[in-house]
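Appendix C reproduces, verbatim, an entry submitted by the partner laboratory led by Prof. M.T., so that reviewers can inspect both the input and the predicted structure.
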Amino acid sequence: MAWLFLFVAGASEIIFALSLKYNEGFTKLWPSVITCISGGASFYLLMLSIKTLPLGTAYAVWTGIGAAGTAVAGIFLFKESTDWFRLVSITFVVAGIIGLKLSHSE
C-alpha cells in the first residue's frame, strides 16, 4: 500500500507543479485552490508512504516522479524542448525510479 501512496503522491506533485504555472502568483482562484489541494495531498501521501518505506527511497521516487512527469507534461502542454539530451535525461530519471522500486522488497 505504501508504494501506491507514493505513486499517487508523485502524481499529485505533478498536478501541484503544473498548477503553479496557471495560478499566476496565487492571483487566480481555481488554479490556486488546485495548487493548495494537490500540494497538501502530495505531502500527506508521501508522509503515509514513509511510515513503511525508507525515507531516502520514498523521497527520491517522489521527486523523480514529480520532476519527470512535470518535464513530460511541459513538453505536451507548453511546447518545451524535445531535444534528445533532455529526453535521455528524463529517461534516466525514470530508470532511477524503476531501479529504486526494484531494489526495495516489500
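The mean pLDDT is 96. Additional entries are available on request from the coordinating office.
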